[in-house]
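Private note to self, pasted from the team thread so I don't lose it. Backbone tokens:
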């Protein structure tokens, strides 16, 4: 049976590829794996997945030799702000190579960083559109922020410089304000960062009643470190979180999707701390101003009421004086009337007494006796009140003398004798 060796077959494949294929091709693929060896050579694995899912459609090895890698990677990072890494989609100029021992691979001649920028922007817009279609994009922004947020849940890495900056700014503030904060630790960069932050948010959610707001912060770093904040799942959790979320993830140039959906986006952890402290300061100044306004209104009201009170005092004093004068005149009139009435009464009483005195004088026995009358009694009784009998002793009193006599006979006044 006719046959060829494996080496001959591989040479045939190599010759066929070299004669049938173009010197190079521009391909779009995702970097599935990437590693550097000690000689500076870069070994990659290019993959392609279905758009509707994660099913692998194609895979091939790639190589960037050290003399090319230095210039390609430097240029790529200067344009995109991130190094070549696994997980990003690139437009690469590649040469198909076949080695008798190592098999088929792609030798990377160039990578267009502008394509990666555009691809990243496209994915970013897709995620934004999806969040808007879900109806959650503005949800966190519509939450009412307490007048003075003081109970803060902080999501960050405990060792992160950004967390230290935030806490120093809060604890050393010149106004002496005190905020109650609690750290919920999370990985803030790398492939696991998005899920780690989601897990921290879920922890805060269980304790939502204990906090006024959430602060999501990290220190500075490479652009690639921010990619987790463009993750759909993380952005969706931030958008729908029941507490206002402040972001300060340490970038100066671009906003991540988490920044866009958060209640308040600030550039750095220090800026977040300053924002919270400034809000407290403004509230304190507002209270002071309100207090001053209230005191001014009270003072104005007191002065006005004091003026009215003095007016009322003057009017009352005038009315009282007028009333007292009128009452005094009335009392004088009443007193005069009473004096006249009393005088009349006394005069009448004096006249009556004089008449009584005259009457008494007229009936006074002494005066009657002086007129020639006398008084006769029988045994100490008025003679008109007893029946006089013969032998009774009579006592007759006149003005000049007392006469004692004995009855010798008694005659009736009606008798003619």
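Design output:
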């Amino acid at each position: 049976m006719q046959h060829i060796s494996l080496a001959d077959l591989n040479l045939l494949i190599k010759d066929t590829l070299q004669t049938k294929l173009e010197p190079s091709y521009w391909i779009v693929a995702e970097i599935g794996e990437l590693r550097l060896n000690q000689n500076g050579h870069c070994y990659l694995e290019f993959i392609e997945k279905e758009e509707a899912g994660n099913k692998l459609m194609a895979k091939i090895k790639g190589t960037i030799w050290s003399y090319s890698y230095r210039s390609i990677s430097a240029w790529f990072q200067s344009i995109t702000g991130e190094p070549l890494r696994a997980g990003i989609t690139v437009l690469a100029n590649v040469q198909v190579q076949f080695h008798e021992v190592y098999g088929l691979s792609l030798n990377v001649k160039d990578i267009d960083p502008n394509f990666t920028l555009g691809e990243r922007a496209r994915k970013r817009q897709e995620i934004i559109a999806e969040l808007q279609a879900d109806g959650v994009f503005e949800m966190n922004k519509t939450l009412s922020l307490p007048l003075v947020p003081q109970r803060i849940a902080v999501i960050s890495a405990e060792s992160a410089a950004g967390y230290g900056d935030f806490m120093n700014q809060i604890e050393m503030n010149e106004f002496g304000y005190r905020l109650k904060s609690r750290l919920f630790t999370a990985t803030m960069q790398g492939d696991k960062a998005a899920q780690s932050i989601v897990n921290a948010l879920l922890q805060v959610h269980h304790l939502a009643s204990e906090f006024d707001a959430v602060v999501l912060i990290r220190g500075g770093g490479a652009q690639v470190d921010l990619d987790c904040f463009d993750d759909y799942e993380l952005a969706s959790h931030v958008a729908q979180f029941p507490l206002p979320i402040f972001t300060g993830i340490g970038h100066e140039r671009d906003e991540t999707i988490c920044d866009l959906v958060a209640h308040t986006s600030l550039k750095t952890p220090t800026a977040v701390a300053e924002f919270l402290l400034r809000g407290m300061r403004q509230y304190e100044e507002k209270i002071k101003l309100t207090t001053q306004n209230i005191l001014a209104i009270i003072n104005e009201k007191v002065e006005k009421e004091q003026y009215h009170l003095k007016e009322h005092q003057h009017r009352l004093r005038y009315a009282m004086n007028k009333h007292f004068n009128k009452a005094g005149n009335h009392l004088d009139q009443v007193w005069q009337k009473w004096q006249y009435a009393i005088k009349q009464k006394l005069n009448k009483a004096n006249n009556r007494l004089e008449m009584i005195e005259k009457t008494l004088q007229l009936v006074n026995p002494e005066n009657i006796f002086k007129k020639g009358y006398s008084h006769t009694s029988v045994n100490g009784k008025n003679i008109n009140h007893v029946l006089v009998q013969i032998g009774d002793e009579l006592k007759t009193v006149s003005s000049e003398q007392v006469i004692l006599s004995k009855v010798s006979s008694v005659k009736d006044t009606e008798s003619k004798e």
